[in-house]
Design a protein that fits this description.
Elements (H helix, E strand, L loop, with lengths): L3 E10 L2 E10 L8 E10 L1 H8 L15 E9 L9 E5 L14 E4 L5 E2 L6 H23 L9 E4 L4 H12 L4 E5 L6 H7 L3 E4 L1 H4 L11 E6 L3 H9 L1 E9 L13 H6 L2 E4 L7 H14 L2 H6 L1 E4 L4 H9 L6 E5 L3
Parallel strand pairs: 8-9, 8-11, 9-10, 11-12, 12-13, 14-15
Antiparallel strand pairs: 1-2, 3-4, 3-6, 3-15, 4-5, 5-7
Helix pairs in contact: 1-10, 2-3, 2-8
The protein binds NADPH dihydro-nicotinamide-adenine-dinucleotide phosphate.
């Protein structure tokens, strides 16, 4: 007899997309050599777009969304993975073209799985999730570009969101002076300071006005989760030899900027992608997260929900109304 498990399934009828929690069996799962008992997943901005259908993230219907999962191996055809191993998976088209993490069970390719480093629980791995993993990639990109705590301040945009919250905590622990840019500077000020922000600025100063080609040099580095006018304004404020790690598009995917920061101030704009990041980089990032992220701060930025809550939370994250990270407890 096949085991039944609960999953959030997104279906499409003509142009109408809908999401509901249902019961599936192993035969509903896609191909893969490892079956995972999913303990936790998480709602990222991209998952919000996928579940609400506000952007064409899902490329196959019906599909279980969820770009992240963490859990234990149930069955494995790969000798490198054994029953009970703790694993984490993000990206590789999970929740886009392959059934994702919003289910009690997943069958995936072993190449996509990363053994979870000691010191990070499956719940903490999902409190980090794609957003936190991407924040780590952004910090590693700034380090590679030579930005050190001595270079000057680092600004984090979309500060109260998932990428922003983890980026602030990481940068603070690594000794950087962190400037948090948030549209919720007033309501989330105490929260951002608790994470490690040294200064909080109102994001509207960056998001609302068209950027000047060059502006006052304020920051040595930036982690930008917002894109559009915000990224253009950030670039015009970066100091000589500074760098910006750009990973997001919460404001928009356009970039209304000039080349002047690059050619007159030697500024570097670094693109950061988590989905197809190579395996060695993934392993390095998860190990850095195990050592460089203050897990007590992770608890402060995390809200736990159940699978049934996901459709409502998906609407909230797309509206920019969630704070920090949202973890789905699949054992609840
Ligand atoms: P969240 O929704 O948690 O955070 C985004 C934050 O951006 C919000 O909390 C808000 O911060 C700010 N924001 C939202 N809407 C707007 C707007 N219209 N104008 C200006 N600021 C806005 O999302 P995540 O942290 O999960 O993801 C952030 C971005 O990074 C997304 O665009 C996502 O797609 C992208 N991303 C990219 C990845 C990659 O591989 N490149 C991986 C992960 C995420 P506040 O209220 O503080 O201003």
């Amino acid at each position: 007899m096949q085991d039944r498990f609960r999953a959030l399934l997104v279906t499409k009828d003509r142009e109408r997309q809908s999401a509901r929690v249902t019961e599936l069996t192993d035969s509903d799962l896609m191909d893969g050599d490892v079956t995972v008992s999913v303990e936790y997943s998480t709602v990222n901005y991209k998952d919000g777009l996928a579940v609400t259908g506000k952007a064409p993230i899902i490329r196959k219907f019906p599909l279980i969304p969820g770009v992240d999962l963490a859990g234990r191996v149930l069955r494995s055809q790969n000798p490198d993975f054994h029953e009970g191993d703790r694993v984490v998976l993000n990206g590789y088209g999970l929740g886009e073209a392959h059934h994702g993490g919003f289910a009690e069970r997943a069958r995936v390719k072993s190449d996509w799985l990363i053994p979870l480093p000691q010191g990070i629980s499956t719940a903490q791995a999902m409190a980090i999730g794609t957003a936190g993993f991407t924040a780590m990639l952004c910090v590693m990109a700034l380090e590679k570009a030579g930005i050190t705590p001595g270079s000057g301040d680092v600004v984090v945009t979309g500060a109260a969101g998932g990428v922003g919250s983890v980026a602030i905590s990481l940068l603070d622990k690594l000794g950087y002076r962190v400037v948090a840019s948030s549209r919720r500077a007033e309501s989330e000020g105490a929260y951002l300071r608790e994470l490690g922000a040294d200064e909080i600025i109102d994001a509207r100063g960056l998001s609302d006005e068209a950027a000047r080609p060059l502006d006052k040099q304020r920051w040595a580095g930036a982690v930008d989760a917002v894109g559009s006018r915000t990224l253009a304004n950030v670039l015009s404020h970066i100091k000589y030899d500074g760098a910006v790690a750009a990973c997001g598009l919460a404001q928009g995917s356009d970039l209304p900027a000039t080349v002047l920061p690059f050619i007159l101030r030697n500024v570097t704009l670094i693109g950061v992608d988590s989905v197809m990041a190579p395996r060695e980089k993934r392993q390095a990032a998860w190990h850095r997260l195990a050592s460089d992220l203050d897990l007590s701060k992770l608890d402060k930025m995390t809200t736990k929900i159940a699978l049934d809550d996901v459709p409502a939370v998906a609407e909230q994250i797309v509206a920019g109304k969630t704070r920090g990270r949202v973890v789905i407890d699949l054992k609840a």
